[in-house]
């Protein structure tokens, strides 16, 4: 069953939805039962009790009419009053109106209807001016018979008490339900939290708990997390192991080349060895990217400024700007070395492929952005995806004089972004005309 319009009005959290699923049927049943019960039971009981009183009132009215005069009638009424338990007087005048009843008073309207139906004479009923006594005035041939009838002789005892009981018990039961429900939802929340944190590269303590299905999901998450961690670890170790091991023969080759007779071939070989060495350093940096660095509260603006001053020290110019639009303090939970390295990679690219470079940090309530722009050739939209893959360098011609990279800079940056749960986006810089790279990390 699909009800898309309903979804818009439903609460979003599991907790409130479950509560709603509980509450709506229960409240509906209670309302229906209450209304039916009050109407049927109280109206029914009141009707029966009132019928008995009506018989007595008719008897009193007939007694008045059978008396020769008003004085005698009152005397006979006084004699009746005690056994009947009513207060009866005979008055002059006639009756015009019938009194109204408050609309919520179910038993009251049953009472009025039954009396009017039974007595079949003009009469006035006042059930409102005293909450213990009902005043009934009946038109007889000898005047008006005024009777004071104790209310409890005609009306079933107060239905409000039932309502109060129902409300109190449902409130207590609902409170208990809410407590239990909380406990059921908690493990799901914890699982979601652990999964989110892992997506951001943080491992939080998590123990599967709660109902069978939730526990199973939690256990599955834990083994998945362990598997991924193992894989990352293996990859890292392999890559750094290989790089490391290759270094030794490379160093030997360098030594051999240094003592060899100089010549064109030796020179070329030397360049190749240098390039290999640079590549190995790149691999090592890539492998270290996934290393054991812990996330900590870090000031992203300080990272940007550090990169700025490092760059200026090498004799290149860079514009560093920062904006902070956040209610929190300026700190973000991230792995500072990894983030600095990836921003540095973006800046290095900008310096390599462009001339003018601008680095900006935007601190927002939900995330932090490092934006690197340059005035170089940029990257075609179609090639952006490709450029972020490991070991990919775009068109050779452009790169030849631009220093031999390995093609890992962008993929390291993207790896770091992903391991923080963030993204790396490449685009066109409207300001400078070259590439605009945005490293966005959630906080
Ligand atoms: N700012 C930029 N402007 C123009 N092209 C760029 C820019 N940044 C990267 N590229 C292109 O994307 C390719 C991949 O970049 P990446 O940083 O991954 O590798 P690299 O710079 O070639 O080598 P490395 O960074 O590993 O030394 C580059 O070879 C280059 O062609
Ligand atoms: Mg690069």
UniProtKB/TrEMBL annotation:
Residues 182-233 form the HAMP domain. It holds the Pfam family HisKA. InterPro entries: 2C_sensor_his_kinase, HAMP_dom, HATPase_C_sf, HATPase_dom, His_kinase_dom, HisK_dim/P_dom, HisK_dim/P_sf, Sig_transdc_His_kin-like_C. One of its GO terms (cellular component) is plasma membrane. It is a multi-pass membrane protein. Its main location: membrane. The chain crosses the membrane at residues 20-38, 161-181. It catalyses: ATP + protein L-histidine = ADP + protein N-phospho-L-histidine. Residues 241-443 form the Histidine kinase domain. Keywords: ATP-binding, Cell inner membrane, Cell membrane, Kinase, Membrane, Nucleotide-binding, Phosphoprotein, Transferase, Transmembrane, Transmembrane helix, Two-component regulatory system. This is histidine kinase.
């Amino acid at each position: 069953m699909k009800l898309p319009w309903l979804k818009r009005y439903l609460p979003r959290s599991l907790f409130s939805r479950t509560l709603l699923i509980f509450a709506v049927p229960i409240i509906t049943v209670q309302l229906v039962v209450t209304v039916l019960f009050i109407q049927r039971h109280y109206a029914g009981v009141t009707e029966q009790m009132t019928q008995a009183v009506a018989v007595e009132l008719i008897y009193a009215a007939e007694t008045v009419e059978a008396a020769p005069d008003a004085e005698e009638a009152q005397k006979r009424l006084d004699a009746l009053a005690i056994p009947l338990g009513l207060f009866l007087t005979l008055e002059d005048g006639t009756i015009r109106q019938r009194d109204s009843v408050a609309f919520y008073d179910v038993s009251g309207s049953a009472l009025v209807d039954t009396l009017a139906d039974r007595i079949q004479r003009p009469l006035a009923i006042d059930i409102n001016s005293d909450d213990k006594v009902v005043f009934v005035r009946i038109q007889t041939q000898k005047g008006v018979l005024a009777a004071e009838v104790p209310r409890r002789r005609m009306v079933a005892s107060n239905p409000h008490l039932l309502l109060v009981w129902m409300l109190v018990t449902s409130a207590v039961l609902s409170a208990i339900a809410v407590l239990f429900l909380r406990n059921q939802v908690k493990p799901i929340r914890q699982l979601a939290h652990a999964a989110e944190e892992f997506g951001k590269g943080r491992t939080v303590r998590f123990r599967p708990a709660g109902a069978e299905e939730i526990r199973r999901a939690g256990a599955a998450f834990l083994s998945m997390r362990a598997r991924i961690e193992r894989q990352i670890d293996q990859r890292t170790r392999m890559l750094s192991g290989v790089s490391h091991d290759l270094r030794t023969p490379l160093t030997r080759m360098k030594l051999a080349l240094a003592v060899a007779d100089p010549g064109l071939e030796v020179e070329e070989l030397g360049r190749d060895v240098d390039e290999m060495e640079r590549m190995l350093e790149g691999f090592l940096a890539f492998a270290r990217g996934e290393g054991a660095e812990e996330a900590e509260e870090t000031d992203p603006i300080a990272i940007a400024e550090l990169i700025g001053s490092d760059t200026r020290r090498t004799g290149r110019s860079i514009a560093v700007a920062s904006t902070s639009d956040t209610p929190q303090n300026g700190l973000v939970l991230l792995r500072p070395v990894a983030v600095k390295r990836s921003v540095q990679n973006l800046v290095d690219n900008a310096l390599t492929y462009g001339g003018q470079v601008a680095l900006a940090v935007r601190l927002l309530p939900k995330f932090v952005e490092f934006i690197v722009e340059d005035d170089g050739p940029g990257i075609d939209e179609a090639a952006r995806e490709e450029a972020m893959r490991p070991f990919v360098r775009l068109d050779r011609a452009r790169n030849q004089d631009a220093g031999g990279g390995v093609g890992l800079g962008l993929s390291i940056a993207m790896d770091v972004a992903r391991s923080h749960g963030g993204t790396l986006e490449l685009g066109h810089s409207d300001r400078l005309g070259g590439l605009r790279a945005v490293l966005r990390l959630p906080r």
